[in-house]
Amino acid sequence: MHTSMDIESASARRARLAMKVAGDGGVRETAVTTAPGMDGFLRSVERRGLMMARIALRHDDDAFDAVQDSMLRLVQRYGTRPEQEWRPLFYRILRNRITDIRRRRLISNRLFGWLGRNEDARDTIDELPAPAQSDPAQALASNERTAALVAAVRRLPPRQQEAFMLRCWEGLSTAETATAMGCSEGSVKTHYFRALHFLQQELEDHQP
Amino acid sequence: MSDSAQQFETAARHRLRALEQELDADSLARLSAARSRALAARGTQFPLPGPAWLTGAAMAMVLGVATLLGYQHWQTEPDAAASGQLAENPELYRDLDFYMWLSESELGNRG
Q1: Residue B28 CA to chain centroid, in angstroms?
Q2: Which residue among A30, A151, A165, A191 is least enclosed by CB atoms within 10 Å?
Q3: Over its length of 111 residues, how does chain B's per-residue pLDDT go in tens digits?
């Protein structure tokens, strides 16, 4: 059974092999070879982007769509931009996609809500895996704290949720977060302060 | 930021990032496939319309409308031109009858 590490090293192995073949051929760099810059960057944001999208959308398939679309748009439209711009750009695109999906869902629910929603696509963010810890009690408590944190982040208003995920989780600077959110740095600080305050109150009994 | 807020921030970050590492194999495979598709799409982008394109399109539209209006104007112009010319030269009207009679007479004399 493949683990996450096996899957990643297989992909990296293929990329290295492709580059090696091109090098042994000694002729040219082919377009097929993976550019380490963009490939490496996408690897660094894909997991976090998916988790953020799952929290924001509460729908697995929608979350995957949002992340995939964001990767595609970043590569196609902004791939030639300086590498240091990719991270805030990616999250800005992702934020826009999440907003689009929410709006589409809102309209769809209003039009077809009486038909009932398809529940087949599960929301896996609620299915937290059993942590690999020796102390079951500690593991359970840890799992509960994480679940409580995620649930509290979900209850944040959208802009505060964005600010929290980008500043705290991703670690973007205030300026980068402002770029990603399309607002001023002052607004970022306000949203983030309010998000932290809300979460601290909500999680008083479940300190992360 | 207060110490408690900083501690909370640090702990929350640690916990959320740990959550990422626990993604299941199926999700990781889907992400890998999405990444591959995105990378494969490099160089296939259609250029976004820029100012030059928009200017060209606007000019083409103006020329098209101008041509259409000009054509319509031309359709009505001949009569207007003719009537205008006649209006400017009333003597032509007066002499026209004479010339018509003259031509009929000549034809009659020949016949």
Answers
A1: 45
A2: A30
A3: 788 889 999 999 999 999 999 899 999 999 999 999 999 988 765 445 556 666 667 777 777 777 766 655 555 444 444 444 445 555 555 666 666 666 666 555 554
Q: Which residues of B touch A71 (CB under 8 A)?
A: 34-35, 37-38
Helix (H, G, I), strand (E, B) or coil at B20: helix
Tell me, what's the ipTM?
0.70
Closest-CA distance, B51 to chain A, in angstroms, reads 17
DSSP A183: S
pTM, 2 dp:
0.63
Short-list A89, A85, A48, CA closest to A67: A48
Nearest CA in chain A to B7: A208
Is A90:A38 a contact under the CB 8 Å cutoff?
no
Around Cβ A132, how many Cβ atoms within 10 Å?
7
- Nearest chain A residue (CA) to B45: A76
